[in-house]
Amino acid sequence: MTEARRDNEWLAAGNADVQQQALKDFATARSARFTSGFGEPTWRRKHEHEGFRVIGTDRVPEYEPDGSPKLNQKTGKQVMGRSVVVQRLNRRWAQVKVPGCGWVRFRLSARGKGARLPAAKTFRVTYRNGQWHIAFAVIPEPTPAPGTGGVIGIDRGVRITAALSDGRKLNCPQLTVRERAQIRKHERRAVRAPKGRALKAAAYAMVAGLKAREVNRRKDWCEKTSTLLARSYDVIRFEKLNIKNMTRSAKGTVEQPGRNVRQKAGLNRGILAQGWGLLRQRTEHKAPGRVEDVPAPFTSLRCSACGWIEKKSRKSQADFVCVSCGFTCNADENASINVAAGQGGIPRPRRTVGAGGVTAANGRSSAREPQPAWVGIPLF
């Protein structure tokens, strides 16, 4: 890096710390090819993922978890760590020193007492959809458990984003009908506009802004919902779903093989718009060690009252009527109760001969029906 900055004026005009962090990010991307299974790093597209990472310039003393000063094992001196230079301006605004730019103002994401100045060593500045964002690398403290011993089960779906075992149903906010109409209008304008014209770029920018609004709403809902779950319950159980495989492109049939089958694209968009993975991830971050995954098989077919498993009990997408005990409940709420029961679930009862209940797939009872007993009765 030193030799390259000496030979190139445009490289020397930039900040050395930012360029070194870019090299570290590139090295991480190269190593991810072997550790995470990703391919070779590719060039970033224009106006996408624009940003840079900055390491702190201030030196502050570091301490051990018990409060004692952290000493260097070789020299015995106090270890001095890096810190970002941040100053508060008022309740909502602060400023940070960016190399090459000086002091830059930013708005704190939290209000009131939660709007604390970040004690970070690095931060990243990004540009998305016409807006600049700054993110500080801070490890948040876990949310303390309430200590009541409460257990909650969460069933995730498309119509109802999160159905809780206590009866509540939470839905992730989506774009309104008017906003979706605006997206379609601007997409038509972009397609009809000549290539290279400013009208095409402006129309696509409007579409990107509306879609970014939906993403911001989804992230905000996941943050608030995960905080609510972490503060209200000691154990949080999610239905274990492989979202990556669920949203893969369909490969067609044996007779007509293919990819990107259109009848599945709408389902994939509906699943990804609910934020299933983000909700599970943020809940784990805020409640480490208190989040569990329950296997998904039979959670929607098992009766939460008696434990009987039968496909015909699921009358529709929203109705569940047990064919064994007659228990009636919302299908999503019934599944969430089964998720809250844990790995083993509600035990399935054992049926004796003549006890009734549907046990075969064809709807017939496996128990043999009792035959009437003929008793001799004198006529005279």
**Helix share, percent:** 25-40%
**Global shape:** globular
Distance between the termini: 118 Å
**What is the succession of H and E elements?**
HHHEEEEEEEEEEEHHEHHHEEEH
Major pleated sheet = 5 strands, mixed
The radius of gyration computed from the alpha-carbon positions, rounded to a whole number of angstroms, is 29 Å
Helix count? 9
Quaternary structure of the protein: single chain
Low-confidence stretches: 353-380
Which strand order do you get reading across the main beta sheet?
11-10-9-12-13
Note the beta-strand portion: 15-25%
Short description:
The protein is an alpha+beta fold. 31% of the residues lie in helices and 18% in strands.
Report on the structure:
- By secondary structure, the protein is of the alpha+beta class.
- The protein has helices spanning about 1-5, 10, 15-35, 175-190, 200-230, 245, 260-270, 275-285, 330-340, and strands at about 50-55, 60, 80-85, 85-90, 95-100, 100-105, 120-130, 130-135, 150-155, 160-165, 170, 235-240, 290-295, 320, 330.
- The strands form 5 sheets. It has a 5-stranded mixed beta sheet with strand order 11-10-9-12-13. Strands 1-7-8 form a 3-stranded antiparallel beta sheet. Strands 4-5-6 form a 3-stranded antiparallel beta sheet, with no helix packed on it.
- Helix 4 (about 175-190) runs antiparallel to helix 5 and helix 5 crosses helix 8 (about 275-285).
- The protein is globular and about 80 Å long.
